[in-house]
Amino acid sequence: MQNQQQQNFTNTAQLPPQQHFGGHDIFDAHEALSSLTSAVDQCVILEQNIQDPELQTMSQKHRAFCGQLYNTILDTFQTGQDPAVDTQSYKMDQSNDVVYGKQPPAQPSTPMQSANELNDQTISGFMMDSLKSAASSFTMASLEMTNPVLRRVLADSVPNLIEMAYEVFLYQNKHQYYQVPQLQQQDMQAFQQSYAPIQGTMPH
């Protein structure tokens, strides 16, 4: 009985690299690749409708970076080994300056009723949503990935997706598509001072 139970289990050394995946990994990697594909597809579809050259350049830069990232992930997903092209580091073009404040819109926003209503504000929102989705799926997949190479590729890619999404946020904020209201100073300070450091946590 014990020998039969042992036959039901294998370890890494008994499998070729391309089989170093659990079933859960396969599903999670599929989800991560699908979310990245969706982000690239949206760029391809929406770029022809972008009016602002700055947003156009950003979308093209994101598409090129995500395209290479897709190839890197796919390489490891199919081989289980180090990819031919390592993960890169995305460098955003926006400054880190944020405009604080909130102004009421000229008119309340509503869902689009026609494709003719598509504009840069909506497109940048789609870009943000797809990057947030990809960052979430990459993070979730990397937490329980049995293949150490793909886990590292996905985990190393999360900061790049965050950087791209933050770049979109800064663009939206600059154009008042994404306004950032603040609490009153006393309320902000009340929250900031509602915690105290733990004492005696330094290792001896």
UniProtKB/TrEMBL annotation:
Compartment(s) of residence: Spore coat
Assigned keywords, A-Z: Capsid protein, Sporulation, Virion
GO biological process: one example: sporulation resulting in formation of a cellular spore
InterPro entries from the UniProt entry: Ferritin-like, Spore_coat_CotF-like
Main localisation: other
Annotated segments matching region Disordered: 1-24
Gene3D superfamilies with a match to the protein in the record: 1.20.1260.10
Protein family (similarity comment): Belongs to the CotF family.
Protein name: Spore coat protein
Lineage summary: Bacteria, Bacillati, Bacillota, Bacilli, Bacillales
